[in-house]
Amino acid sequence: MDFTGVYHRTSEQMSYAQNENELVINLKTGYDVKQVFIHHGDPYDAGILGGNEVWHGKREEICFKKRLRHQLWWTTTLTPEYKRCKYYFELHTDGEVWYYLEDGFLTKEQLNMKGRILQFFIVPWMNPADVCRTPAWVNDTIWYQIFPDRFCNGTPELNTGDIRTWQSGPVRNEERYGGNLEGIRKKLPYLKELGITGIYLNPIMEAESNHKYDTKDYTKIDPDFGRLVQEAHEQGIKVMADAVFNHCGRRFAPWVDVLEKGEASPYADWFMVQKWPIPDKQADTRDGRFYSFAFADWMPKLNTNNEEVITYFCKICEDWIRDYDIDGIRFDVGNEVSHRFLKRIREHLHRIKPDIYLLGEIWHDAGPWLQGDEYDSVMNYPLMSGIHEYFLDKSLDKSEFEYMINRCYTMYMQQNNNVMFNLLDSHDTERLMNRFHDLDIFYQQLAVLFTMPGSPCIYYGTEIAMEGGFDPDCRRCMPWEEVGTEENQNRIEAVRTLIRLRKQEKALRSLYFHFPEEYPQRRCVEYIKIDSQGREIEVLLNCSEEKIKVKEGGEILFARNFSEGVLERNGTLVRRKKTSIWNTEDMENGA
Ligand code: ARE
Predict the structure, then answer these.
(1) Angle CA(78)–CA(81)–CA(84) in degrees, nearest 5?
(2) How far is the CA of 428 from the centre of ligand 1 (A)?
(3) DSSP letter at 301?
(4) Cβ(470)–Cβ(429) under 8 Å?
(5) Contact 315, 282 (CB under 8 A)
(6) pLDDT at 51 over 70
(7) Mind listing the pLDDT tens digit for each residue in 542-555?
(8) Is the peptide bond before 472 cis (omega within 30 degrees of 0)?
(9) In which band, very low, low, confident or very high, does the pLDDT at 118 lie, cut at 50, 70 and 90?
(10) Could you tell me the pTM of the whole model?
(11) What is the position in ligand 1's atom list of the atom closest to the CA of 211?
């Protein structure tokens, strides 16, 4: 057996309570492991001490596995009667059997050796307070991301001199177009009609720049925000605000005070100043004056290790909830603030609004932030880049797509997966349509987005396949005058269909999927989503150059480039399967 491929710990996403009763246990092995059994029992009941006691636990085969590129991921769900569990694995390769315990790997003889003291894997107690819980509504939500300055100017008659005329061409970062909350409010019926049930707003607190990531005053929001949230709620739309707590803008009053009074300022420790007095110059912060966001000296880093700072921002968030009734908060640069700060904020806000959604902006493996006491989920950039890579690199065959999806959904606990913030582009990336300039590929990728576990988000303008390169080009004004054209109406209709399906079909929102191998074509992506009643939906994407003759059967829910049983190049087919080969119990066991 390849021992280096085998990994399990009674922590992270390998062994955790999914709820008060169920314990999920995952194991990684190499492909040489062909069969796995888990022996499990109550720690006070089952045990072999010194080889004298009998193991009273159960031996069960782990039937479900996902394929990762170099490893297999075995998964099972147990329901320990007394909330405790002791367990070990029995691994079979062709011709070998090994027992895997906390101690390491043992042969059968070693396992049963008289006098040996064995350390099993153990979950001492599944305490309800420690269960990672995420807000249930998020999985049902279809998000729409809005960059306020460029979405809709609802009050053009109030434009001041520095506001430019709304236009659909390229924009520059320092330009302002006057998009505002009133504009968003006016477009609520448009969003509702599209099927949107959540808005994620880029920052709206007072700031100097048009993107407002350089906050001047965290308490100053257009008073109309309350009205917007209320009306959104009336339409069944949740609202998530963007919180910039890693750094502030250079006009934030405490920072102004520090610049003025130096070390004597009561706010001196609110920031991370390295050299006193702070030299009076404008330059990037590689010179070591103070820490800032990405060396930008107009974005001084806040010291989220400081107790006063923690208390201050807990109160800011509390007020956003109390005054405006927001439903979610996205934490900008979510991995550079302190863990202590996030734990405190979560606890504080949960007391006020227990189902608030806390989303971290983290582009990488975010395990340490998703243990249940900080964020509920993160922006799923690994999924975005994985999908992009597959469509870009034609040398990858469909198993690579499978590995990539499996990697994304074995990184975290299922509770987090269920509310993962899935996106294909944002204000920080080039637009989806820009990547291939091809509508068929565009819809293939959207079909993936709308059928993955988690919560899908589209960036404003996606419904009309807006183009735009990297920041600032991805922040062009929404071309409202062009929305009504027949071409755009057709595009909107396609997105609306995907949204409707997502809402209507539980299987599309479900955590469960598998990759059958019914088609031999190397770039025919095929996967099945399954709901808890065993109802199946099949997704087929022809990413090859050839036509694919599709097997008969099933009700077509969404199709592009598909006719008379043939899926053309870059075609998409989403179908409801007629038969069901899975039963509910298997599903709950983590298929
Ligand atoms: C502006 C210009 C840029 C220019 C930069 C120079 O637009 O073209 O390069 O200034 O300083 C905000 C504005 C930006 C602005 C920036 C600085 O929206 O327009 O840039 O402020 O003033 C990393 C971080 C991640 C961060 C991204 C941008 O981890 O947190 O970089 N994202 C957030 C917001 C941004 C925002 C800020 C942070 C600052 O979403 O919009 O920028 O408040 C890899 C890495 C990631 C990295 C990612 C992108 O994959 O793994 O860690 O994210 O690339 O670079």
Answers:
(1) 75
(2) 7
(3) B
(4) yes
(5) no
(6) no
(7) 999 999 999 998 99
(8) yes
(9) confident
(10) 0.96
(11) 18
